[in-house]
Design goal:
353 residues, alpha+beta, Arc Repressor Mutant, subunit A, 3 domains, 3-stranded antiparallel β-sheet, extended
Length: 353
């Protein structure tokens, strides 16, 4: 932890023992701040580009600060963050990939968004922390932090433990400095070029939460709703039904009972079982036919490395005559086209997902 300006921070990064231990002689770690990286349009400074490409320089650090900058200043913008909004980061990642580097992408803190925060004016205060004053002890929504790692005067400060309090009058899109999990838990992400092996590490599939796909509607029921008689508990239907009798409104059952599906299974089914086909389709249709591949693997309780083979077999069965009934796009999103599914398998028009 460093207290001081950029020069001290750069020297501290260069002298960090853990980084020096993996560096080569005369090629110590080097750190570039935001104004040294290059233009905001994505053109990296030549010095940064050369260091990333230099195989002798084992540790290269860059500070972007783009999120912090968006939370303050005259223009308060609500931004959906992606590489399109941070072109300089895209350029850094591109250079790192070409150089075969492993990238550790991290933040030094998190922040809370402003959702109608309440001003609790305090002297000697920043947005979300303040100095300890004798006549202003911590309130019920504040906590005291003390210790040798605290850089504030007296190595102590007070900070709110809830999201809805700020100490300064200026309204911002977001604030940091408090003690909520959003601010204290700093994200970290390790990225490596394809087929790169890191000793002691293994690839981990990204498991997206259910709300990740905002354009997908509410979950669609794939089993009939059961109403219990008065005085009796409702019978809970099983998650998956493996009977292949087509019922009104059950597209999956209609598919499994269709003649075209039987023919496709005979030719392209291989080791894939009808039960596996049904299970996969029902999981897909829980989200209107759209699931992230990693999420699908999790829902099916199979290893991520096996989901590719399952989907490839399923595509051979469903994509009749090459029509894209089941597709996987560049974002690793699996999509089931229900309209094409019904057309290619000549399903009853009354069948609905």
């Amino acid at each position: 932890m460093f207290l001081g300006g950029q020069a001290l921070e750069k020297r501290g990064f260069e002298e960090l023992e853990e980084l020096r231990a993996v560096s080569r002689s005369s090629f110590f770690p080097v750190l570039f701040h935001k104004d040294e990286i290059g233009a905001s349009g994505g053109d990296l400074a030549e010095a940064v580009r050369l260091e990333i490409r230099n195989p002798n320089r084992r540790a290269v650090g860059t500070i972007v600060n783009v999120v912090d900058d968006s939370l303050e200043g005259p223009e308060q913008l609500a931004i959906r963050w992606s590489l399109d909004q941070v072109p300089v980061l895209r350029a850094i990642l591109s250079e790192a990939r070409d150089a075969g580097r492993v990238v550790i992408l991290l933040s030094d803190h998190g922040h809370v968004l402003d959702l109608g925060s309440k001003l609790n004016r305090r002297p000697n205060a920043s947005d979300r922390w303040r100095s300890i004053i004798v006549d202003q002890p911590p309130s019920g929504d504040e906590l005291v932090v003390a210790g040798h790692r605290v850089l504030a005067d007296g190595q102590r400060f007070v900070s709110p433990a809830i999201e809805s309090v700020r100490y300064t009058p200026n309204r911002r899109q977001g604030y940091h400095g408090g003690l909520t999990p959003q601010e204290c838990l700093a994200p970290i992400f390790v990225i490596a070029p394809p087929l790169t092996e890191i000793e002691g590490w293994q690839p981990r599939a990204t498991v997206a939460p259910d709300w990740w796909l905002e354009d997908v509607g509410a979950e669609l029921m794939t089993t009939p709703r059961i109403t219990a008689p008065k005085g009796k508990a409702a019978a809970r239907p099983p998650l998956l039904l493996f009977d292949h009798v087509a019922k009104p409104g059950d597209t999956v059952a209609a598919l499994l009972a269709s003649e075209v599906f039987g023919q496709q299974m005979e030719v392209f089914g291989g080791r894939l079982k009808r039960e596996q086909v049904e299970q996969t389709l029902r999981v897909l249709m829980e989200r209107n036919g759209v699931q992230m591949k990693a999420t699908l693997a999790q829902r099916l309780a199979i290893a991520p490395i096996r989901v590719d083979g399952l989907l490839a077999s399923l595509q051979r069965i469903l994509n009749v005559d090459g029509y894209p009934v089941l597709t996987i796009d560049s974002s690793q999103t699996v999509r089931l086209n229900l309209t094409l599914l019904k057309e290619q398998f000549e399903l009853n028009e009354a069948a609905q997902p």
